[in-house]
Task: structure prediction
Amino acid sequence: MPPPDHPAIPAPRIGVLLINLGTPDAPDAAAVRRYLAEFLSDPRVIEIPSLLWQPILRGIILRTRPRKSAHAYAQVWQDEGSPLAAITARQSRALQARLGETVTVDWAMRYGNPSVVAAIGRLVDAGVTRLLAAPLYPQYCAATTASAMDATFAAIAARRWQPALRTLPPYYDDPLHIQALLVSLKSQLAALDFAPDRLLLSFHGMPERTLRLGDPYHCHCQKTARLVGERVGLPTDIAFQSRFGRAKWLEPATDTVLKAYPEQGVTKIAIAAPGFSADCLETIEELGIRGREDFLAAGGTHFARLECLNDSEQGIDMLDRLIRRELAGWWPTP
Ligand SMILES: C=CC1=C(C)c2cc3[nH]c(cc4nc(cc5[nH]c(cc1n2)c(C)c5CCC(=O)O)C(CCC(=O)O)=C4C)c(C)c3C=C
Ligand SMILES: [Fe+2]
Ligand SMILES: [Fe+2]
Result:
């Protein structure tokens, strides 16, 4: 018999933690400032020595950008809050219903709330001894995937009694992912009231330097785009959005491509963002509002933004199957 103060040994319990990038708590400048300060202080995101970067961040960026970004967030904010957080919460609930009682599913944001530390604390308190950390980025990038892993490892490093840990690998070229994208994109294309000349696949950009440093992100995006383009049934292009700062970023830039299309005779387009597992500021506002304006102002006539996989049937089905594959061998499996 253990002494009376010895913790009870729980039955093995599996936890699944969905992790996405992060978002402010509210669409106002103060909340956006807090969020950007945390996000843009991550050395995985800004790969400039902190001594050089922090004065620029604190002295310039955090004085100007929060107000501008808050205005953009206000345009996409929903009753349930930020779209990114609301959709990730719905994905978590849908997966919980699929995976059943032996698994506890929760979600976290790498920056902002709910934090990775808090979510892992909740899972461990619920008796989780085996944890699958699932960063919801199809393409691996040090700025996103590795940073989510860093936060997970740090949260676990701080615990005396650590859960066993697995991580969901990137799924950019997984047949389950490509098939889910094709079903989703084709059904949205079929529901349009016009026939697009072109489908533009827009991925979040990165400084070009990260490609030369060995980050596989650019290659992963190219492969997702090629596999979708081969089977989606209309000509596709790839582009990279959301340029930040003065350095050279991956090209071609989404806004440049949108503005150039009409003079090339491409006046009817659909745009999709297969690097995002959930719609967010970057898809709803940057593509759906500003991208549309750029394209129409340049002479485009028809524009449609297609939704991300979000908590659609095919999106949840894909995550359910990717996750079950990683849980195999952990008893009791769902
Ligand atoms: C140098 C800065 C940035 C890098 C590198 C970067 C990489 C990167 N980001 C995503 C996904 C998302 N980014 C989002 C917002 C966002 N991104 C940056 C900057 C960099 N991103 C900023 C400053 C912002 C905030 C908004 C703004 O002020 O413009 C979001 C949306 C969050 C939301 O709340 O909706 C996502 C998602 C990826 C996938 C990526 C590298 C591959
Ligand atoms: Fe970003
Ligand atoms: Fe953006």
Observations:
- The first strand starts at residue 14 and ends at 23.
- The pocket of fe (ii) ion (ligand 2) is lined by residues 204, 242 (CB under 6 Å).
- The radius of gyration is 21 Å.
- The beta strands are 14-23, 103-112, 130-135, 164-167, 198-204, 236-241, 268-272, 302-305.
